[in-house]
Design goal:
mainly alpha; two-stranded parallel ribbon; elongated
Length: 133
Amino acid sequence: MKKRIQDAKKRIQDVKKRIQDAKKRDLNLSNYDRIYAVVKRIPKGRVATYGQVASLAGLPGHARQVGYALHALPENHRLPWHRVVNAKGEVSPRAYPFAEDMQRAFLEAEGIPFDERNRFPLEEYRWRPRKAL
């Protein structure tokens, strides 16, 4: 009887440790890190909306936070930020002059066509990942 109780206590301790380890892993990823991990996965020639990135990062309803995270990127980053667009199939306005033109040029270089209204067929070029982060 004592042996079974000891075994059960040991299993409980093992489970508690695994739960703590899992929590530490999740807590080590900031929201921005989660967003960056999703954006990094968007393939060339595809786009994702701010809301889509937020949902895939486990932050549904936080599309603006995606914009804040992308704005906070350092100058020397290699993240394909230009592949994140608004839900209308447009490049969102930026605070910096000509930033929209640069994003559009990057997307066009990847084969995404724009019309005279500066829009592209979002559903045709939307990234559809197999699984979330």
